Amino acid sequence: MRALISAGGMLAAAGLTFGLMTAPASAAPTTASASTTPAAKPPPKAGKGSVKCNENNSRVNFSWKTGYASTKVYYNNHCLGGFKTKVAFKFWNDGSTPFYKCVSFEGMTKGTYKFAHINEIMGVSKDTKKCEKN
């Protein structure tokens, strides 16, 4: 009798184990809906750069991060107060011709500057002549 009871208990336990291991088809996650929705392309990675503002090796340091709606630039201008530094940011336009945006930064300040587009910044320089074409 004990053998029948223990055998029945083992069968019941085995049935529960197999029942928990398999799930009905309705509970299985569907990949069809995920594949029909295009995956959002992640924004480009962050970057950094700097430019000299005068002869005594003072610099304006930049770092940036491109988000889903804009590009935010963090700056720290080590140039003397009252001395503005005009800087050209080079943007890559979806793999085509680069374009430039120029911004002036006041000396001895730090803060953020926000570009209202999401193109990736490729570099920063003091060559502001290219900004005149845009």
In short:
This protein is of the alpha+beta class.
Describe this entry's structure for a reader.
With 134 residues, this protein is α+β, with helices and mostly antiparallel strands. It has helices spanning 2-21, 32-36; strands spanning 47-52, 59-66, 71-77, 85-92, 99-105, 110-115, 120-125. The strands form two sheets. A four-stranded antiparallel beta sheet has the order 1-2-3-6, with no helix packed on it. The protein has a three-stranded antiparallel beta sheet with strand order 5-4-7, with no helix packed on it. Strand 1 (47-52) and strand 2 form a beta hairpin. The relative contact order is 0.17.
Please describe the structure with a list of short key phrases separated by commas or semicolons:
19% helix; 4-stranded antiparallel β-sheet; 3-stranded antiparallel β-sheet
